[in-house]
């Protein structure tokens, strides 16, 4: 019934960008395109680049935000200031029962590049087991670690790492700016066997402390799906159109494609996709559009007044995210982030250095090391809960050490910070509609720490991190625990739990809300070819199709999925 889908759009505003093949207005739209991609974010731009490489194929990208061609997005150091900015959708969760009913902010990027334009640029892949578990779950070997190798990002520094000969691949590099704390971190890996050094945590075996890899280009600027996959020569392709500041509201069946106005100011228009519509609106945006279109659980849809058009009860369900908390300690040093943040002269000097030659603190996200660690196999939680990790090479939690609190406001102290994440959460949440109005916000409930395994793991991650800083390497440097954390009795589970409830926030890695599942399965939203089950001409390509959250920051897996998705689509349509 969806055989010739049409996109129904609400035009909010237009922007014109000289020199770029970005549409100035909807007047310039073609009557139809071979492919319409909803969301010019991380995954969407990969697909747009690959499909438009065949000049006979017409492609339209519809992006809710703007061009994102601004300095703040290019400077790696400024990434934390982008949270809550004009480049963030500023979403908020529903009250989280696992967090004492607190709501938390859920940053996600808006504008070309999507979340890759505002993220922390860490490029981690998780374990090979993560990919193999998904291939097994969806019963399709082509999603396995080995078979995905051609789609991995281009490591511009480390020979022997997974890489691909394809052009316009996301670039990945180790830190180019060394933090004064790096040596002590490395020393700790030699002093304490709980924290072994791993020289390539992206090899498929992720356990241990390793140097971080980041999507930062050799010139010290952020590398995003906007800068790599939509560079000027791509955006100028005559067969690729990019429509900005346009929020897609829902997908319509052709026979119901009447032109309808939402209100007196804005107007609507429709575009035909000759071949396919590709939803790349992210783990919150994609289920929202599907539900607005009547694709979802009929009972839920009816309850808010949306007419069900295609029964697919899993849409929006199984939303999974990492939970995150940051601990800080005061240190015997003045060369930390805090000193940069409170000293305008130093700030200006470093910014000028970055402008001149792309080096120094401003060329770094501030994250030099990432550690993925396991709970001991003897942990008592395993008496009652089956280990949710994908295998013995997969971490249960992550520790990131930073030379100062990169999330913190101005302070007179100097700090060292550890940011912890539960990598194998068992909590599952949902995205649901609040109303039938397609521009209303959806209810987003990641259900952080609603499963006691997640709470247990966060507790043990905190204890492990404290042992890390109790290592001799930090003597005379780490002075005392800071903030609310200072008063917590680490022996007392209840006190730790209370601290966690009050302080955990989103890990910003939502996946699973439009899960891929085996062909013919009674659950899931897409088949392993990423086509929406039971419909024609509609695919999902973004983080929402990843059915099991990897023990990784999710841009790496998202880029890999998008590269393979583009390959599948090109083969299906026999384009080059
Ligand atoms: C602040 C932050 C920091 C992060 N740090 C890291 C990190 O260091 N490393 C890492 O690996 N991952 C990180 N992540 C996560 C990672 O960036 C995401 O998992 C990944 O980018 C998701 O890609 P996506 O294509 O699924 O969605 P997105 O990149 O979010 O793209 C979705 C796009 O669709 C657009 N859109 C949504 N709805 C509509 C609509 N109705 N109509 C038109 N357009 C629409 C959005 O504006 C956006 O451009 C971070 C995320 C955030 C927010
Ligand atoms: C997010 O909030 C900030 C601060 O209030 C605001 O400036 C920005 O425009 C908001 N983002 C969007 C996309 O509305
Ligand atoms: C959280 O909200 C639920 C439902 O409203 C309520 O039953 C519960 O007591 C609340 N918990 C706390 C800690 O306030
Ligand atoms: C890590 O690997 C790199 C590149 O392969 C190598 O140059 C370096 O010496 C290794 N470091 C350690 C500590 O093994
Ligand atoms: C959630 O995912 C699991 C597989 O991980 C599946 O068995 C279950 O049916 C899914 N639930 C929904 C509501 O889709
Ligand atoms: C601020 O930074 C400048 C430049 O590095 C330095 O000379 C000055 O001493 C700093 N001020 C303070 C108060 O630390
Ligand atoms: C970059 O500029 C700074 C001064 O602003 C200088 O100290 C540094 O050596 C330069 N680095 C390179 C690689 O040119
Ligand atoms: C701070 O470090 C200096 C050496 O750099 C040392 O002499 C001093 O004792 C340290 N202070 C504390 C409180 O440990």
UniProtKB/TrEMBL annotation:
Q: Which residues does the UniProt record annotate as the domain Glucose-methanol-choline oxidoreductase N-terminal? A: 282-296
| Origin: domain of life | Eukaryota
Active site: which residues? 509, 553
Q: Name the needed cofactors.
A: FAD
Going by the UniProt record, its keywords in alphabetical order are: FAD, Flavoprotein, Signal
Q: Gene3D superfamilies per the record?
A: FAD/NAD(P)-binding domain (3.50.50.60), Glucose Oxidase, domain 3 (3.30.560.10)
Q: Name one GO molecular function term.
A: flavin adenine dinucleotide binding
* Signal peptide, first to last residue: 1-20
Tell me the InterPro entries matching this sequence: FAD/NAD-bd_sf, GMC_OxRdtase, GMC_OxRdtase_N, GMC_OxRtase_C
In which family does this protein belong, per the annotation?
A: Belongs to the GMC oxidoreductase family.
Protein name per the record: Glucose-methanol-choline oxidoreductase N-terminal domain-containing protein
């Amino acid at each position: 019934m969806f055989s010739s889908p049409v996109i129904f759009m609400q035009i909010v505003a237009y922007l014109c960008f000289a020199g770029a093949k970005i549409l100035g207005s909807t007047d310039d739209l073609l009557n139809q395109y071979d492919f319409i991609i909803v969301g010019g974010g991380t995954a969407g731009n990969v697909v747009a680049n690959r499909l438009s490489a065949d000049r006979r194929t017409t492609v339209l990208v519809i992006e809710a935000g703007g061009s994102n061609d601004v300095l703040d997005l290019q400077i790696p150091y400024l990434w934390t200031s982008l949270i809550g900015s004009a480049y963030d959708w500023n979403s908020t969760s529903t009250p989280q029962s696992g967090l004492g009913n607190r709501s938390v902010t859920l940053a996600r990027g808006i504008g070309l590049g999507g979340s890759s334009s505002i993220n922390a640029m860490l490029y981690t892949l998780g374990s090979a087991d993560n990919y193999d578990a998904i291939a097994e779950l969806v019963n399709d070997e082509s999603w396995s670690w080995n078979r995905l190798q051609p789609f991995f990002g281009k490591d511009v520094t480390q020979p022997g790492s997974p890489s691909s000969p394809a052009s316009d691949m996301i670039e990945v590099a180790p830190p180019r700016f060394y933090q004064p704390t790096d040596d002590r971190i490395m020393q700790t890996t030699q002093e304490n066997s709980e924290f072994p050094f791993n020289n390539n945590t992206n090899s498929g075996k992720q356990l241990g402390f390793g140097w971080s890899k980041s999507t930062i280009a050799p010139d010290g600027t952020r590398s995003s799906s906007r800068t790599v996959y939509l560079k000027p020569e791509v955006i100028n392709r005559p067969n690729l159109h990019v429509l900005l500041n346009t929020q897609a509201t829902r997908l319509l069946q052709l026979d119901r494609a009447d032109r309808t106005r939402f209100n007196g100011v804005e107007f609507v228009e429709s575009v035909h996709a000759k071949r396919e519509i590709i939803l790349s609106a992210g783990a919150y945006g994609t289920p929202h559009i599907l539900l607005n279109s009547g694709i979802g659980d009929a009972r839920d849809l009816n309850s808010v007044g949306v007419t069900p058009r295609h029964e697919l009860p899993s849409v929006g369900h199984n939303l999974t995210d990492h939970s995150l908390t940051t601990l800080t300690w005061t240190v015997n040093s003045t060369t930390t982030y805090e000193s940069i943040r409170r000293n305008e002269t130093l700030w200006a000097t470093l910014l000028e250095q970055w402008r001149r030659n792309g080096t120094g603190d401003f060329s770094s996200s501030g994250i030099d090391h990432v550690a993925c660690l396991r709970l001991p196999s003897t942990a008592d939680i395993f008496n009652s809960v089956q280990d949710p990790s994908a295998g013995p090479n997969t971490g249960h939690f992550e520790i990131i050490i930073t030379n100062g609190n990169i999330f913190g406001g101005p302070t007179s102290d100097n700090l060292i910070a550890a940011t912890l994440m539960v990598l194998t959460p068992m909590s599952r949440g949902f995205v649901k509609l609040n109303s039938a109005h397609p521009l209303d916000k959806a209810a987003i409930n990641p259900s952080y720490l609603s499963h006691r395994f997640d709470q247990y793991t966060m507790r043990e991650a905190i204890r492990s991190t404290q042992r890390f800083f109790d290592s001799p390497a930090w003597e005379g440097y780490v002075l005392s625990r800071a903030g609310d954390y200072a008063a917590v009795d680490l022996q007392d589970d209840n006190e730790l739990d209370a601290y966690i409830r009050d302080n955990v926030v989103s890990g910003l890695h939502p996946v699973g809300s439009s899960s891929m599942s085996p062909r013919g399965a009674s659950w899931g939203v897409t088949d392993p070819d990423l086509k929406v089950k039971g419909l024609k001409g509609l695919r999902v390509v973004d983080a929402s199709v990843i059915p099991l959250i990897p023990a990784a920051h999710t841009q790496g897996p998202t880029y890999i999925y998008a590269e393979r998705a583009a390959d599948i689509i090109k083969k299906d349509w026999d384009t080059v």
